[in-house]
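To whoever is on call:

I kicked off a structure prediction for a single chain this morning and the downstream step that reads the tokens threw a length-mismatch warning. I double-checked the sequence; it's 440 residues and nothing unusual in it as far as I can see. Pasting both halves so you can look.
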Amino acid sequence: MTTHEKILKNLGIAAADIARGDLEVRSPIDGKKIGSVRQHKVADVAKAVTKAQAAFREWRAVPAPVRGEFVRLFGEELRAAKDDLGKLVTLECGKILSEGLGEVQEMIDICDYAVGLSRQLYGLTIASERPGHHMREIWHPLGPLAVISAFNFPVAVWCWNAALALVCGDPVIWKPSEKTPITALACQNLFERAVKKFKKAGHKIPDSLSQVLIGGRDIGVALAGHKEIPLVSATGSTAMGRDVGARVGARLGRSLLELGGNNAMIVSPSADLEMAVRAILFGAVGTCGQRCTSLRRLIVHEGIYGALVKALVKAYGQIRVGDPLDGKTLVGPLIDKAAFDAMQKTLKQAQKEGGKILVGGGRVTKNVPGGFYVAPAIVEMKKQSAVVMHETFAPILYVFKYTDMERAIAMHNDVPQGLSSCIFTENVREAERFLSATGS
């Protein structure tokens, strides 16, 4: 039995369960096949919604603290399976093991938070101008929730939504990325283990409280357009978000969108450069640059530009790229060939637009198990050209010079995307300006 087969077995997935499907799943670590899973058809969406509606009618009547007890049990299952699920995350999406384990810890943490929230679902009591009257605010469950998640956070995003939805009384239908469906099946197995323990403790819980639908864009479109799903939570590209938002909005539903980013850091003359280099390195190359919060743009004062860039180039040259299951590895592979091709296309375009590659960018083939491994790149740019305005899901860091803080903040804000931002400075005025309404 191979290592990944042992992991799957521990998570309740038998080899036969992922042997006869029509969707082939390969590990980005070495390109080898992990398994084949069955994809659902569009018609299965309506069936899943019907089941979720039936579950909703039962679950909404369960007291919120009791719903919280179920989520607590699910969190305990996650604790017990943390090592195996974390390794499966690494195996299926390629992030280094510490990040895979960290993602499962995020699931555990949100379950703990949701348990506390289950006893805080209270509203306001409001005075009325009419004698002998008052108004009360009471929150009611919304209904079945659809979660559409991306490959780079294959389990945490679902759990962020699911744990909160469950304590609020709402069932969940999950469409994971077709690149990482096996982690979703593992999570569903852990969910069912919690269901059994909940029932054993004497509680009632409806069937189909959590469902997984595996498939491509057609499944996502059907979920976004279904009128009996009041809220769709979707994580992915900005283009995907526009599509989902429009479909959900057209039926006056609600959408919760977590999309792309084009995140920047300003480094001022007073900054602690040693600390900045460490932060830049982690922010830019973590998850091989495949995070919506990855650092994409570095805006450095001209007075320290040379020293900082020199230190960064040296640090990039020492990055260990390789098997993400090896604890000494800092950067694992890109998810697939399409991601590698997109990175190479972007680097060529950056050069056409006046950019200079200072370090990295090429494919790494030595001392790696296969897959699409790359050397993280730093690209010096004279201005924020078209290629910079576009998010590429790869470890590419664009660096720029600035002369004054006004210009730095203007550059920082001059992109269509926005998610995370930061400044490295020991100047209190600069820090406060950056945090103000006229800053980031």
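Update from on-call: the warning came from a stale cache, not from the record. Cleared it. Sanity check on the structure: Residues 3-258 form a domain with the Aldehyde Dehydrogenase; Chain A, domain 1 fold (CATH 3.40.605.10).
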